[in-house]
TrEMBL record:
The active site is at residue 109. It is an enzyme of class 2 (transferase). It holds the Pfam family Formyl_trans_N. Its EC number is 2.1.2.2. NCBIfam families: PurN. Belongs to the GART family. Residues 3-182 form the Formyl transferase N-terminal domain. This is Phosphoribosylglycinamide formyltransferase. The keyword Transferase applies. One of its GO terms (cellular component) is cytoplasm. It comes from Halanaerobium congolense.
Amino acid sequence: MLKIAVFASGRGSNFQSIIDNIKNGKIPAEVKLLISDNQDAGVLKRAESENIEHLFIDPAHFETKADYEEELIGLLKNAGVELVVLAGYMRILSPLFVRHFKNKIINIHPSLLPAFKGLNAQKQAVKYGVKYSGCTVHFVDQGMDTGPIIKQAVVEVKEEDNADDLAARILKKEHKIYPEAVKLIAEGRIKIEGRKVKIIKEEK
């Protein structure tokens, strides 16, 4: 059973969608640890209600980012974590951290990468005038939203949309494809070849 840690900074709706899919038997995994950099994050209460170990680790208590990440690495090692799931985690991980967990960190981004990287992707999409946007689950590498893509879902951008309208519809798709991506990894059905992620067909 795959051992997971989730990093989150906000409400934790993607965290909840993964937990729900684990509880109903769809994902052969266990969330060992929830880590947040935000003391007031709603995700901490979600983890508490699910009896999952949860920690607020304040980056301000560390002299350097390297010290902060060393603390995180130690916690993950002690918990035997095999996959780090970023679910609205509002910090950029250093190359050192990413190398330490190479091909073992995934993220979900609210656009169809490689379009609209970085912050406010939904606002970028509306402003640009695209007809379709969506969300992307990808492995984390040392770039900004540049890692190999695991899954994507498409959402139509309506003429009357503002960024919040689009974000709400994209979030529904996120709740579907993020658990699906975790399931593929937990079942050992992912193979990375350069920039491409190949999905191994499920044995019947």
